[in-house]
């Protein structure tokens, strides 16, 4: 099996939206904005991204119940692409763990 694991911290920039799939699986979707300074070629580089996060399953719903916009969190999970309703694809972080950062 190939490696696919990401830990990313940031600020929730789009309010979490809760839904239930036709199969009865609970989902929470939100946008995460990450900003940091990283080293590349021995020089500082600003790193910034916005990524969509989806947390699926009953066990993660307790971790997402109190999430709000502007909250700082650390999300661990795997990456996969998702096709939007207009046919475009985007990278999505499928959460396995969400930790609030104070």
UniProtKB/TrEMBL annotation:
Self-association state and partner proteins as the record states: Homodimer. Interacts with PriA and DnaT. Component of the replication restart primosome. Primosome assembly occurs via a 'hand-off' mechanism. PriA binds to replication forks, subsequently PriB then DnaT bind; DnaT then displaces ssDNA to generate the helicase loading substrate.
Entry keyword annotation includes DNA-binding: yes
Full protein name: Replication restart protein PriB
Regions annotated as coiled coil: none
Protein's job: Involved in the restart of stalled replication forks, which reloads the replicative helicase on sites other than the origin of replication; the PriA-PriB pathway is the major replication restart pathway. During primosome assembly it facilitates complex formation between PriA and DnaT on DNA; stabilizes PriA on DNA. Stimulates the DNA unwinding activity of PriA helicase.
Family: Belongs to the PriB family.
Organism: Neiella litorisoli
Gene3D superfamilies xrefs: Nucleic acid-binding proteins
Gene: priB
GO biological process assignments: DNA replication, synthesis of primer
Keywords carried by this UniProt record: DNA replication, DNA-binding, Primosome
The keyword DNA-binding is assigned to this record: yes
A molecular function GO annotation: single-stranded DNA binding
GO cellular component, one term: primosome complex
Domain of life per record: Bacteria
HAMAP family: PriB
NCBIfam families listed in its UniProt record: PriB_gamma
Alphabetical list of Pfam families matching this protein: SSB_1 (PF22657)
